[in-house]
Amino acid sequence: MYKAMEDILREAKEHQLEFWEVVQMDDCKERDISKEESFLQMKKMYEAMKHADEAYDKELISASTLCGQDGEKMKQAKEKGNLLCGDFIGTVMEKALKMGESNACMKRIVAAPTAGSCGVLPAVLLALQEKEGISEEEIVKALYVAAGIGGVIASRAFLAGASGGCQAEIGSASAMAAGAVTYLKKGTPEQISDSSALALKGLLGLACDPVAGLVEVPCVKRNVIGAVNALTSSDMACAGIESKIPADEVFDAMKSIGRSLPTAIKETGEGGLAATPTGLKYKETLEQDF
Fold first, then answer.
1. Nearest-5° Cα angle at 189, 187 to 195
2. What's 16's DSSP letter?
3. 267, burial (CB in 10 Å: exposed 0-12, middle 13-18, buried 19+)
4. How many CB atoms are located within 10 Å of the residue 124 CB?
5. Pairwise CA distance, residues 143 & 212, whole Å
6. Is residue 194 within 8 Å of residue 246, measured between CB atoms?
7. Burial of 20 by CB count in 10 Å (0-12 exposed, 13-18 middle, 19+ buried)?
8. Which residues have a Cβ under 8 Å from the Cβ of 14 and sit 6 or more positions away?
9. How many CB atoms lie within 10 A of CB 53?
């Protein structure tokens, strides 16, 4: 697993490879498998994401009753033309909500990179494939890009909210999605790196403060923020806007910030939104019910 984006960029340049190819080669080497086997396994990941999206149940509500049915509300608002963001962003928002709600309702999802941030990457990839008619082969290649970025972040910082706050979950997922989208938009390896840096920079310091300790509020809605942030970050990078701070240094900054965050806002459910009067009421009610 690569520990620096700079190493991936250097490898791509020296051997005239695409970003995804460098990541795939590393995967094959690390797990001692063929390119074909690696690609098939990654394809199954995307198929699982598609199935999770298709299997969304608009009637389902989580056991806590804190989330459910919002994905359907977003879909209806989009179909009525009520969204200022338009149909495409509306679809991204809808899919991010659906995936996050499915996770809260104990349905099968793909942790990307975590269960709490499972809606970001599939929301942008599924919506983009529907909009542009992108082949599944290209989407799978984009997943390698996302995996490479996620691997570097995991090596340099962390992916768990308990370790680094929600910046480690939604922030990392947004960085991964931004890079994947940039690849699909024919961005260079450098632009892929810049887009991941821009995405995470926008979410640095994000607290992990789940109400009643459940990965539902505000987690599901933060998937929407992460997905849309990924798209705007990709657009900036593809427009030629560079991150003044290199991606590796942004990842390092996330680690430093995560270590500085109080324990109360690192998935303990003790601070932030979880500690608001309403948040505490939800906790008290749920403790009585369960």
1. 70
2. T
3. buried
4. 30
5. 33
6. no
7. buried
8. none
9. 20
Beta strands in the chain (DSSP E): none
Q: Please check the confidence at residue 290 and state whether its pLDDT lies above 80.
A: no
Residues 21, 145: Cα–Cα separation, whole Å: 9
Let me know the angle formed at the C-alpha of 22 by 20 and 26, rounded to the nearest 5 degrees: 115
Tell me whether residue 290 is exposed, middle or buried, using C-beta atoms within 10 angstroms of its C-beta: 0 to 12, 13 to 18, 19 or more. Answer: exposed
Percentage, residues of the chain above pLDDT 90: 99
179, 226 contact by CB (below 8 A): no
With 0-12 / 13-18 / 19 or more C-beta atoms within 10 angstroms meaning exposed / middle / buried, residue 80 is exposed
- Is the four-CA dihedral 149, 152, 156, 160 of positive or negative sign? positive
Encoded tokens for 235: 């657009």
One-character DSSP codes across 222-258: HHHHHHHHHHHHHHHHHTTPPPSS-HHHHHHHHHHHH
The residue behind tokens 């996050």 is 100
pLDDT in tens, 49-89: 999 999 999 999 999 999 999 999 999 999 999 999 999 99
The token duo for 131 is 């909009």
Structure tokens at 172: 């990392």
Distance CA 191, CA 197 (A): 10
Instruction: Compute how many other C-beta atoms are within 10 angstroms of the C-beta atom of residue 34.
Output: 9
- In this predicted model, what pLDDT tens digit does every residue of 191-203 receive, in sequence order? 999 999 999 999 9
